[in-house]
Amino acid sequence: MRQLTPPVLCLALLVLAGASVSARAQPLQLPGAQPFNAPGAQQSAPHGTSSGPAAPRVHTMPAIKVAGEEAIVGRTLRRNGGFGEATFEKTATGYGLKLNAEGFQAANLVEPCTVSLGDGPLPVTALGRPAGVPRYRLEAPICPIVFDVLDGAFLVVEPAQPCVVEAAACRIDVRGLWGPDARTLVSRAKEIESARGVAERAVREGYRALNAKHDAVEQRGLAREQAGFSAERETICRDFQREGSLGFCGARLTEARAASIRARLGITSEPKPPRPKPARPAVAKPAPLPLTPQ
């Protein structure tokens, strides 16, 4: 066997020592662990994650109650909560409306008068739900009326002007909201306030959802529309009795606006009622300790 000379032997020992130090410098890596990156190298993100921008928030409307015909059947309703009398009734062929309207004499606008549109309910024709709520037309030649059914009220959409009944020489005004006698709404103040809050949130979220579907030009139109609704609601409701303290008219018109936005968004399903909370079992209280020793 050939013997190594001293210089060669020293060089071999140095190479072996360097390899040993390099092996000890490598960190311990367990089976299945991610490999260690060399200094200055980038580590790839775990599989299945994305570093892109977050997805835009999807706007959804809060659940609202969309009233149907049963909300006014058999109820006595008054224009602006205090004038005239209207009753929406079921008939053999569908629905009918019995209406007595108050007004003033056509030749003397300070002299009151009353006109009855019939002894019984006149037939109404269903016009679908163009604004998200049931719409009907009253077949009355002397004063045809188109109205939307709301929750415990109806809103007259047409005519835009008072009707003059020539036979009675009376000028009647059927425009506005027909609802319960305002004097009966005092006990429902909290309920009305809560309903309006829900409807306001639904309208705001509905407009955000509509904005997300349109470009900048159409969004400006939606902003004008929203401002116009606030002004229109103020105009319609300012004559409703006790509106300042109760807000019944404003609540119902806001609910109607929310229903209209739902229809424009293509939301046709009724919101599911909330599930009742399970009753908690009663916990028996321990009997009080006697004050006197036994």
In percent, how helical is the residue content? 25-40%
Helix-and-strand structural type: alpha+beta
How do the strands of the widest beta sheet line up side by side? Answer: 1-2-3-5-6-7-8-11
Mean pLDDT: 81
Distance linking N and C termini: 108 Å
Radius of gyration: 38 Å
Residue ranges: pLDDT <50 for 5 or more in a row?
A: 9-13, 19-23, 27-34, 39-46
Explain what the structure shows.
This protein is α+β, with helices and mostly antiparallel strands. 30% of the residues lie in helices and 22% in strands. It has five helices and eleven strands; from the N terminus they run H-E-E-E-E-E-E-E-E-E-E-E-H-H-H-H. It has helices at residues 6-25, 189-212, 216-237, 243-246, 248-264, and strands at residues 76-79, 83-91, 94-105, 108-116, 122-126, 135-138, 145-150, 153-158, 163-165, 170-172, 176-179. Strands 1-2-3-5-6-7-8-11 form an eight-stranded antiparallel β-barrel. A hairpin with a 3-residue loop joins strand 1 and strand 2. Helix 2 runs parallel beside helix 5 (248-264) and helix 3 (216-237) runs antiparallel to helix 5 (248-264). Mean pLDDT is 81; it is low at 9-13, 19-23, 27-34 and 39-46.
